[in-house]
Amino acid sequence: MHFKPCLIKLAMLSTLFVSVTGIAEEMALYPTGPSQDSSFVRFVNGTDQAITLTSSGAKKMVMPINQAATSFYPIPAKSTLKGSFSSGKAQSDIALSVKPGEFASVIALTSPAGLKQLILREQPDDFNALKASVALYNADANCINATLNVVGRAVNLFDKVPAGNLQRRALNPVKISVQLLCNAQRVSAPLDLGLLQAGQRYSVFVLPAKQTSRIYFTSDNIAQ
Amino acid sequence: MAASALLGLSLLVIGESHMSAKEYLINPLHDELTKQGAIVHSVGACGSNAGDWLKISPAPCGGDRKGNQKAVFKGRDATTTPIQQLIAADKPDLIVMIIGDTMASYGKPFPQTWAWQNVTNLTKVIADSHVACIWVGPAWGNSGGKYVKTDERVKYMSTFLKNNVAPCTYVDSLSFSKPGQWETLDGEHFTPLGYKSWSNQITESIVASPFVTARKK
Protein backbone atom coordinates (compact mmCIF):
# COMPACT_ATOMS: atom_id res chain seq x y z
CA MET A 1 0.00 0.00 0.00
CA HIS A 2 1.35 3.41 -0.93
CA PHE A 3 0.45 5.93 1.73
CA LYS A 4 0.95 9.59 1.30
CA PRO A 5 2.26 10.55 4.75
CA CYS A 6 1.10 14.12 4.38
CA LEU A 7 -2.45 12.97 3.72
CA ILE A 8 -2.45 10.67 6.72
CA LYS A 9 -1.07 13.38 8.99
CA LEU A 10 -3.69 15.74 7.65
CA ALA A 11 -6.36 13.15 8.34
CA MET A 12 -5.17 12.73 11.93
CA LEU A 13 -4.85 16.44 12.55
CA SER A 14 -8.30 17.00 11.18
CA THR A 15 -9.65 14.29 13.51
CA LEU A 16 -11.21 12.50 10.61
CA PHE A 17 -11.79 9.46 12.81
CA VAL A 18 -15.03 11.11 13.81
CA SER A 19 -17.53 9.10 15.79
CA VAL A 20 -21.01 10.19 14.87
CA THR A 21 -23.85 9.14 17.12
CA GLY A 22 -26.29 6.84 15.40
CA ILE A 23 -24.32 6.48 12.19
CA ALA A 24 -21.18 4.64 11.18
CA GLU A 25 -17.71 6.00 11.85
CA GLU A 26 -16.05 8.08 9.20
CA MET A 27 -12.90 6.58 7.76
CA ALA A 28 -9.47 8.13 7.70
CA LEU A 29 -8.48 9.43 4.31
CA TYR A 30 -6.33 7.07 2.28
CA PRO A 31 -5.30 6.88 -1.35
CA THR A 32 -7.48 4.84 -3.71
CA GLY A 33 -4.69 3.82 -6.06
CA PRO A 34 -1.01 4.44 -6.81
CA SER A 35 0.45 7.82 -7.71
CA GLN A 36 1.30 6.41 -11.14
CA ASP A 37 0.65 3.23 -13.08
CA SER A 38 3.09 0.29 -13.20
CA SER A 39 5.51 -0.01 -16.13
CA PHE A 40 7.68 -2.83 -17.40
CA VAL A 41 10.57 -3.53 -19.74
CA ARG A 42 11.85 -6.74 -21.33
CA PHE A 43 14.81 -7.51 -23.55
CA VAL A 44 14.80 -9.58 -26.72
CA ASN A 45 17.67 -11.14 -28.64
CA GLY A 46 16.78 -10.57 -32.29
CA THR A 47 20.22 -11.50 -33.61
CA ASP A 48 21.32 -14.91 -34.86
CA GLN A 49 23.72 -15.65 -32.01
CA ALA A 50 23.87 -15.44 -28.22
CA ILE A 51 24.38 -11.93 -26.85
CA THR A 52 25.06 -10.52 -23.40
CA LEU A 53 22.78 -8.09 -21.62
CA THR A 54 24.58 -5.93 -19.06
CA SER A 55 22.77 -3.72 -16.55
CA SER A 56 24.04 -0.35 -15.33
CA GLY A 57 25.08 -2.20 -12.17
CA ALA A 58 27.34 -4.45 -14.30
CA LYS A 59 25.17 -7.54 -13.81
CA LYS A 60 25.33 -9.72 -16.91
CA MET A 61 22.85 -12.10 -18.50
CA VAL A 62 23.56 -14.25 -21.54
CA MET A 63 20.61 -14.36 -23.93
CA PRO A 64 20.65 -17.41 -26.25
CA ILE A 65 18.56 -17.26 -29.42
CA ASN A 66 16.35 -20.14 -28.31
CA GLN A 67 15.36 -18.16 -25.18
CA ALA A 68 15.23 -14.86 -26.97
CA ALA A 69 13.00 -12.85 -24.61
CA THR A 70 13.27 -12.09 -20.91
CA SER A 71 10.30 -11.66 -18.59
CA PHE A 72 8.94 -8.14 -18.16
CA TYR A 73 10.77 -6.39 -15.33
CA PRO A 74 9.08 -3.64 -13.29
CA ILE A 75 10.62 -0.23 -13.95
CA PRO A 76 9.61 3.15 -12.50
CA ALA A 77 8.02 5.35 -15.15
CA LYS A 78 9.86 8.48 -16.25
CA SER A 79 13.22 7.26 -14.91
CA THR A 80 16.03 6.28 -17.28
CA LEU A 81 17.11 2.65 -17.44
CA LYS A 82 20.65 2.14 -18.71
CA GLY A 83 22.60 -0.92 -19.81
CA SER A 84 23.96 -2.51 -22.96
CA PHE A 85 23.75 -5.40 -25.37
CA SER A 86 27.08 -6.88 -26.45
CA SER A 87 28.34 -9.62 -28.72
CA GLY A 88 32.08 -10.03 -29.16
CA LYS A 89 33.41 -6.52 -29.68
CA ALA A 90 30.07 -5.14 -30.78
CA GLN A 91 28.05 -3.19 -28.24
CA SER A 92 24.82 -1.23 -28.23
CA ASP A 93 24.10 1.01 -25.23
CA ILE A 94 20.58 1.05 -23.81
CA ALA A 95 19.03 4.25 -22.43
CA LEU A 96 15.30 3.93 -22.00
CA SER A 97 12.48 5.63 -20.15
CA VAL A 98 8.86 4.47 -20.12
CA LYS A 99 5.49 6.09 -19.56
CA PRO A 100 3.15 4.99 -16.75
CA GLY A 101 1.33 1.82 -17.80
CA GLU A 102 3.75 1.06 -20.62
CA PHE A 103 5.29 -2.30 -21.55
CA ALA A 104 8.51 -1.73 -23.51
CA SER A 105 10.41 -4.40 -25.45
CA VAL A 106 14.04 -3.58 -26.26
CA ILE A 107 15.06 -5.77 -29.19
CA ALA A 108 18.73 -6.29 -30.09
CA LEU A 109 19.29 -6.61 -33.83
CA THR A 110 22.32 -7.18 -36.03
CA SER A 111 23.50 -4.13 -37.99
CA PRO A 112 26.40 -3.54 -40.40
CA ALA A 113 28.19 -1.80 -37.51
CA GLY A 114 27.55 -4.70 -35.13
CA LEU A 115 24.44 -4.26 -32.98
CA LYS A 116 21.46 -1.90 -32.94
CA GLN A 117 18.14 -1.74 -31.10
CA LEU A 118 14.48 -1.51 -31.87
CA ILE A 119 12.19 -0.44 -29.03
CA LEU A 120 8.51 -1.33 -29.34
CA ARG A 121 6.03 -0.06 -26.74
CA GLU A 122 2.54 -1.14 -25.70
CA GLN A 123 0.09 0.59 -23.38
CA PRO A 124 -2.56 -2.11 -23.03
CA ASP A 125 -6.15 -1.50 -22.04
CA ASP A 126 -7.44 -4.93 -23.01
CA PHE A 127 -6.77 -6.89 -19.81
CA ASN A 128 -9.25 -9.74 -19.59
CA ALA A 129 -9.03 -12.92 -17.52
CA LEU A 130 -11.52 -14.70 -19.79
CA LYS A 131 -9.56 -14.19 -23.01
CA ALA A 132 -6.07 -14.91 -24.23
CA SER A 133 -4.13 -11.95 -25.59
CA VAL A 134 -1.62 -12.34 -28.44
CA ALA A 135 0.64 -9.70 -29.98
CA LEU A 136 2.65 -9.77 -33.18
CA TYR A 137 5.91 -7.83 -32.98
CA ASN A 138 7.43 -7.33 -36.42
CA ALA A 139 11.12 -6.63 -35.77
CA ASP A 140 12.40 -7.70 -39.19
CA ALA A 141 12.86 -4.82 -41.64
CA ASN A 142 12.84 -7.36 -44.48
CA CYS A 143 9.41 -8.72 -43.53
CA ILE A 144 6.99 -6.40 -45.26
CA ASN A 145 3.40 -6.62 -44.06
CA ALA A 146 3.82 -9.45 -41.57
CA THR A 147 0.72 -11.61 -41.49
CA LEU A 148 -0.12 -14.55 -39.23
CA ASN A 149 -2.51 -16.98 -40.83
CA VAL A 150 -4.34 -19.51 -38.68
CA VAL A 151 -3.35 -22.94 -40.02
CA GLY A 152 -6.32 -24.90 -41.30
CA ARG A 153 -8.60 -21.89 -41.39
CA ALA A 154 -8.89 -19.15 -43.96
CA VAL A 155 -8.47 -16.38 -41.39
CA ASN A 156 -5.60 -14.17 -40.35
CA LEU A 157 -4.78 -13.64 -36.71
CA PHE A 158 -2.84 -10.52 -37.75
CA ASP A 159 -2.87 -8.85 -41.12
CA LYS A 160 -0.11 -6.71 -42.68
CA VAL A 161 1.79 -5.52 -39.62
CA PRO A 162 4.50 -3.15 -40.92
CA ALA A 163 8.15 -3.70 -39.94
CA GLY A 164 8.98 -1.92 -36.68
CA ASN A 165 5.39 -2.16 -35.43
CA LEU A 166 3.20 -4.39 -33.31
CA GLN A 167 -0.45 -5.30 -33.04
CA ARG A 168 -2.29 -7.08 -30.23
CA ARG A 169 -5.66 -8.74 -30.04
CA ALA A 170 -7.77 -10.77 -27.65
CA LEU A 171 -9.02 -14.20 -28.64
CA ASN A 172 -10.75 -17.14 -27.08
CA PRO A 173 -8.45 -19.59 -25.30
CA VAL A 174 -8.14 -22.18 -28.07
CA LYS A 175 -5.43 -24.39 -29.55
CA ILE A 176 -4.01 -22.88 -32.72
CA SER A 177 -1.07 -23.04 -35.11
CA VAL A 178 -0.04 -20.09 -37.24
CA GLN A 179 1.81 -19.54 -40.50
CA LEU A 180 3.91 -16.40 -41.00
CA LEU A 181 3.66 -14.56 -44.28
CA CYS A 182 5.92 -11.67 -45.30
CA ASN A 183 4.73 -9.69 -48.29
CA ALA A 184 2.12 -12.38 -48.91
CA GLN A 185 4.77 -15.15 -49.13
CA ARG A 186 4.93 -18.03 -46.65
CA VAL A 187 7.99 -17.83 -44.44
CA SER A 188 9.40 -20.64 -42.28
CA ALA A 189 7.40 -23.59 -40.99
CA PRO A 190 4.01 -23.25 -39.25
CA LEU A 191 4.27 -22.53 -35.52
CA ASP A 192 2.13 -24.35 -32.97
CA LEU A 193 1.07 -21.87 -30.28
CA GLY A 194 -0.49 -24.71 -28.30
CA LEU A 195 -3.57 -24.30 -26.15
CA LEU A 196 -3.76 -20.62 -25.24
CA GLN A 197 -4.71 -19.95 -21.62
CA ALA A 198 -7.42 -17.51 -20.54
CA GLY A 199 -5.90 -14.45 -18.91
CA GLN A 200 -2.44 -15.14 -20.29
CA ARG A 201 -0.68 -12.68 -22.58
CA TYR A 202 1.63 -13.84 -25.39
CA SER A 203 3.95 -12.34 -28.01
CA VAL A 204 4.99 -13.64 -31.40
CA PHE A 205 8.20 -11.97 -32.63
CA VAL A 206 9.19 -11.82 -36.28
CA LEU A 207 12.99 -11.58 -36.16
CA PRO A 208 15.63 -11.36 -38.90
CA ALA A 209 17.46 -14.52 -39.94
CA LYS A 210 20.23 -15.23 -42.47
CA GLN A 211 18.02 -16.53 -45.25
CA THR A 212 14.63 -15.27 -44.24
CA SER A 213 12.66 -14.28 -41.11
CA ARG A 214 12.38 -16.41 -38.03
CA ILE A 215 9.49 -16.52 -35.63
CA TYR A 216 9.71 -16.66 -31.83
CA PHE A 217 6.78 -17.24 -29.49
CA THR A 218 6.77 -16.42 -25.78
CA SER A 219 4.46 -15.83 -22.82
CA ASP A 220 4.52 -12.28 -21.50
CA ASN A 221 5.50 -13.19 -17.97
CA ILE A 222 6.07 -10.59 -15.27
CA ALA A 223 9.23 -11.09 -13.20
CA GLN A 224 8.23 -11.44 -9.55
CA MET B 1 -33.80 -17.51 0.76
CA ALA B 2 -33.60 -20.67 2.89
CA ALA B 3 -31.98 -19.95 6.26
CA SER B 4 -29.61 -22.88 5.89
CA ALA B 5 -28.35 -22.16 2.40
CA LEU B 6 -24.73 -21.95 3.56
CA LEU B 7 -24.95 -24.62 6.26
CA GLY B 8 -21.56 -26.07 7.14
CA LEU B 9 -19.59 -23.82 4.81
CA SER B 10 -16.49 -22.09 6.10
CA LEU B 11 -16.31 -18.57 4.65
CA LEU B 12 -13.34 -16.22 4.72
CA VAL B 13 -14.38 -12.64 3.95
CA ILE B 14 -11.66 -10.06 3.39
CA GLY B 15 -11.92 -6.46 2.34
CA GLU B 16 -11.03 -2.81 2.50
CA SER B 17 -12.44 -0.08 4.75
CA HIS B 18 -15.99 -1.25 4.06
CA MET B 19 -15.08 -4.23 6.25
CA SER B 20 -13.26 -2.29 8.95
CA ALA B 21 -15.68 -0.42 11.21
CA LYS B 22 -18.45 -1.44 13.57
CA GLU B 23 -21.44 -0.52 11.44
CA TYR B 24 -19.83 -1.34 8.12
CA LEU B 25 -20.03 -4.77 6.43
CA ILE B 26 -17.96 -6.59 9.02
CA ASN B 27 -20.99 -6.88 11.30
CA PRO B 28 -24.18 -6.97 9.17
CA LEU B 29 -22.66 -9.11 6.41
CA HIS B 30 -21.00 -11.43 8.92
CA ASP B 31 -24.35 -11.77 10.71
CA GLU B 32 -26.31 -12.44 7.50
CA LEU B 33 -23.87 -15.13 6.36
CA THR B 34 -23.92 -16.69 9.81
CA LYS B 35 -27.74 -16.74 9.73
CA GLN B 36 -27.46 -18.80 6.56
CA GLY B 37 -25.45 -21.42 8.42
CA ALA B 38 -21.91 -20.42 7.44
CA ILE B 39 -18.93 -20.34 9.77
CA VAL B 40 -17.51 -16.93 8.98
CA HIS B 41 -14.17 -15.21 9.49
CA SER B 42 -14.25 -11.54 8.44
CA VAL B 43 -11.09 -9.49 8.10
CA GLY B 44 -10.86 -5.85 7.03
CA ALA B 45 -7.96 -3.47 6.43
CA CYS B 46 -8.62 0.14 5.48
CA GLY B 47 -7.13 1.19 2.15
CA SER B 48 -6.01 -2.33 1.27
CA ASN B 49 -5.80 -3.19 -2.41
CA ALA B 50 -5.66 -6.72 -3.82
CA GLY B 51 -1.87 -6.94 -3.70
CA ASP B 52 -1.81 -5.95 -0.04
CA TRP B 53 -3.38 -9.32 0.80
CA LEU B 54 -0.32 -11.17 -0.47
CA LYS B 55 1.90 -9.75 2.27
CA ILE B 56 1.68 -7.99 5.63
CA SER B 57 0.75 -4.42 4.70
CA PRO B 58 0.16 -1.60 7.18
CA ALA B 59 -3.31 -0.06 7.30
CA PRO B 60 -4.65 3.01 9.12
CA CYS B 61 -7.48 0.90 10.57
CA GLY B 62 -8.87 -2.61 10.42
CA GLY B 63 -11.19 -5.20 11.89
CA ASP B 64 -11.31 -8.92 12.57
CA ARG B 65 -14.28 -11.08 13.55
CA LYS B 66 -14.39 -14.85 13.95
CA GLY B 67 -17.57 -16.88 14.18
CA ASN B 68 -19.88 -15.70 16.95
CA GLN B 69 -17.21 -13.59 18.63
CA LYS B 70 -17.37 -9.82 18.68
CA ALA B 71 -15.38 -7.92 16.09
CA VAL B 72 -12.03 -6.54 17.20
CA PHE B 73 -11.02 -3.21 15.68
CA LYS B 74 -7.56 -1.73 15.32
CA GLY B 75 -6.25 1.72 14.55
CA ARG B 76 -2.88 2.60 13.17
CA ASP B 77 -1.43 -0.76 14.25
CA ALA B 78 -3.70 -2.59 11.79
CA THR B 79 -2.23 -4.69 8.99
CA THR B 80 -3.43 -7.09 6.36
CA THR B 81 -2.77 -10.81 6.83
CA PRO B 82 -1.41 -12.63 3.77
CA ILE B 83 -4.15 -14.67 2.08
CA GLN B 84 -1.96 -17.78 2.09
CA GLN B 85 -1.74 -17.53 5.88
CA LEU B 86 -5.50 -17.01 6.23
CA ILE B 87 -6.22 -19.98 3.97
CA ALA B 88 -3.84 -22.21 5.92
CA ALA B 89 -5.40 -21.21 9.24
CA ASP B 90 -9.10 -21.19 8.28
CA LYS B 91 -9.19 -23.83 5.54
CA PRO B 92 -12.19 -22.00 4.00
CA ASP B 93 -14.55 -23.53 1.48
CA LEU B 94 -15.16 -20.12 -0.05
CA ILE B 95 -13.26 -16.83 -0.05
CA VAL B 96 -15.20 -13.59 -0.51
CA MET B 97 -13.24 -10.45 -1.42
CA ILE B 98 -14.74 -7.00 -1.12
CA ILE B 99 -12.15 -4.84 -2.86
CA GLY B 100 -12.74 -2.13 -5.43
CA ASP B 101 -12.83 1.43 -4.15
CA THR B 102 -9.20 1.22 -3.01
CA MET B 103 -8.08 0.38 -6.54
CA ALA B 104 -10.22 2.82 -8.52
CA SER B 105 -7.80 5.76 -8.32
CA TYR B 106 -10.60 8.27 -7.94
CA GLY B 107 -9.51 11.70 -9.17
CA LYS B 108 -6.53 10.27 -11.04
CA PRO B 109 -5.93 8.41 -14.31
CA PHE B 110 -7.00 4.77 -13.95
CA PRO B 111 -3.90 2.56 -13.41
CA GLN B 112 -4.82 -0.30 -15.76
CA THR B 113 -1.57 -2.18 -15.49
CA TRP B 114 -1.20 -1.84 -11.74
CA ALA B 115 -4.81 -2.94 -11.18
CA TRP B 116 -4.44 -5.91 -13.55
CA GLN B 117 -1.22 -7.02 -11.89
CA ASN B 118 -2.64 -6.73 -8.36
CA VAL B 119 -5.95 -8.43 -9.12
CA THR B 120 -4.45 -11.31 -11.07
CA ASN B 121 -1.68 -11.90 -8.53
CA LEU B 122 -4.30 -12.37 -5.81
CA THR B 123 -6.68 -14.51 -7.88
CA LYS B 124 -3.77 -16.70 -9.03
CA VAL B 125 -2.73 -17.46 -5.45
CA ILE B 126 -6.33 -18.32 -4.57
CA ALA B 127 -6.72 -20.45 -7.70
CA ASP B 128 -3.52 -22.30 -6.85
CA SER B 129 -4.98 -23.07 -3.41
CA HIS B 130 -8.08 -24.62 -5.09
CA VAL B 131 -10.48 -22.62 -2.91
CA ALA B 132 -13.60 -21.22 -4.58
CA CYS B 133 -13.82 -17.43 -4.58
CA ILE B 134 -16.24 -14.59 -5.08
CA TRP B 135 -15.17 -11.01 -5.76
CA VAL B 136 -17.65 -8.33 -4.68
CA GLY B 137 -17.18 -5.14 -6.69
CA PRO B 138 -17.76 -1.56 -5.54
CA ALA B 139 -21.21 -0.09 -5.01
CA TRP B 140 -22.47 3.30 -6.19
CA GLY B 141 -21.49 6.10 -3.85
CA ASN B 142 -22.42 9.74 -3.90
CA SER B 143 -20.47 11.58 -6.58
CA GLY B 144 -17.77 13.82 -5.19
CA GLY B 145 -16.89 13.76 -1.50
CA LYS B 146 -13.38 13.69 -0.14
CA TYR B 147 -12.46 10.56 -2.10
CA VAL B 148 -13.67 12.15 -5.38
CA LYS B 149 -15.62 8.97 -6.15
CA THR B 150 -17.61 9.40 -9.34
CA ASP B 151 -20.32 7.27 -10.95
CA GLU B 152 -18.30 7.09 -14.16
CA ARG B 153 -15.14 5.76 -12.48
CA VAL B 154 -16.92 3.29 -10.22
CA LYS B 155 -18.68 1.88 -13.29
CA TYR B 156 -15.32 1.60 -15.07
CA MET B 157 -13.76 -0.10 -12.04
CA SER B 158 -16.65 -2.53 -11.81
CA THR B 159 -16.32 -3.47 -15.49
CA PHE B 160 -12.56 -3.86 -15.10
CA LEU B 161 -13.03 -6.25 -12.17
CA LYS B 162 -15.77 -8.18 -13.96
CA ASN B 163 -13.32 -8.80 -16.82
CA ASN B 164 -10.35 -9.69 -14.64
CA VAL B 165 -11.32 -11.62 -11.50
CA ALA B 166 -11.80 -15.05 -13.12
CA PRO B 167 -11.69 -17.78 -11.93
CA CYS B 168 -13.48 -15.99 -9.09
CA THR B 169 -17.18 -15.26 -9.62
CA TYR B 170 -17.89 -11.54 -9.87
CA VAL B 171 -20.69 -9.94 -7.87
CA ASP B 172 -21.72 -6.63 -9.43
CA SER B 173 -22.74 -4.40 -6.53
CA LEU B 174 -23.84 -1.70 -8.97
CA SER B 175 -26.91 -3.82 -9.72
CA PHE B 176 -27.99 -3.61 -6.07
CA SER B 177 -28.97 0.06 -6.05
CA LYS B 178 -29.27 3.16 -8.19
CA PRO B 179 -26.50 5.78 -8.21
CA GLY B 180 -26.82 7.86 -5.03
CA GLN B 181 -29.60 5.68 -3.62
CA TRP B 182 -27.57 4.54 -0.60
CA GLU B 183 -26.66 7.55 1.50
CA THR B 184 -22.98 7.99 2.28
CA LEU B 185 -20.98 9.80 4.94
CA ASP B 186 -18.22 10.93 2.62
CA GLY B 187 -19.17 9.90 -0.91
CA GLU B 188 -17.81 6.38 -0.39
CA HIS B 189 -18.70 4.92 3.04
CA PHE B 190 -22.37 4.25 3.66
CA THR B 191 -24.68 4.89 6.57
CA PRO B 192 -25.73 1.75 8.49
CA LEU B 193 -28.86 1.48 6.31
CA GLY B 194 -26.71 1.29 3.18
CA TYR B 195 -24.39 -1.31 4.68
CA LYS B 196 -27.40 -3.37 5.78
CA SER B 197 -28.83 -3.32 2.25
CA TRP B 198 -25.43 -4.14 0.74
CA SER B 199 -25.00 -7.03 3.21
CA ASN B 200 -28.36 -8.52 2.31
CA GLN B 201 -27.67 -8.30 -1.42
CA ILE B 202 -24.16 -9.77 -1.11
CA THR B 203 -25.55 -12.66 0.93
CA GLU B 204 -28.24 -13.35 -1.67
CA SER B 205 -25.59 -13.31 -4.40
CA ILE B 206 -23.38 -15.75 -2.51
CA VAL B 207 -26.32 -18.09 -1.92
CA ALA B 208 -27.14 -17.94 -5.66
CA SER B 209 -23.51 -18.32 -6.76
CA PRO B 210 -22.46 -21.31 -8.92
CA PHE B 211 -20.28 -22.68 -6.11
CA VAL B 212 -23.13 -22.77 -3.58
CA THR B 213 -25.84 -23.93 -5.96
CA ALA B 214 -23.60 -26.73 -7.27
CA ARG B 215 -23.27 -28.08 -3.71
CA LYS B 216 -27.03 -28.50 -3.43
CA LYS B 217 -27.21 -30.84 -6.44
Strand-residue proportion of chain B: 15-25%
- Number of separate strands of chain A: 16
Radius of gyration of chain A, taken over Cα atoms and rounded to an integer in Å: 22 Å
Number of helices of chain B: 6
Largest sheet of chain B: 7 strands, mixed
Major β-sheet profile of chain A: 4 strands, mixed
Give the strand content of chain A. Answer: over 45%
What oligomeric state do these chains adopt? heterodimer
Q: Rough shape of chain A?
A: globular
Query: Looking across the biggest beta sheet of chain B, what order are the strands in?
Result: 5-4-2-1-7-8-9
Taken in chain order, the helices and strands of chain A follow as HEEEEEEEEEEEEEEEE
Explain this structure.
The complex is a heterodimer of chains A (224) and B (217). By secondary structure, chain A is mainly beta. The relative contact order of chain A is 0.15. Chain A starts with a helix and ends in a 5-residue tail after the last strand. Chain A has one helix at 5-13, and strands at residues 40-45, 51-55, 60-63, 73-74, 81-87, 90-96, 103-111, 114-122, 132-138, 146-150, 156-161, 165-171, 175-182, 185-195, 201-208, 213-219. Chain A is globular, with a radius of gyration of 22 Å. Chain B has a seven-stranded mixed β-sheet with strand order 5-4-2-1-7-8-9, sandwiched between helices. In chain B, strands 3-6 form a two-stranded antiparallel ribbon. Chains A and B meet through loops of A and strand 3, helix 3 and helix 4 of B.
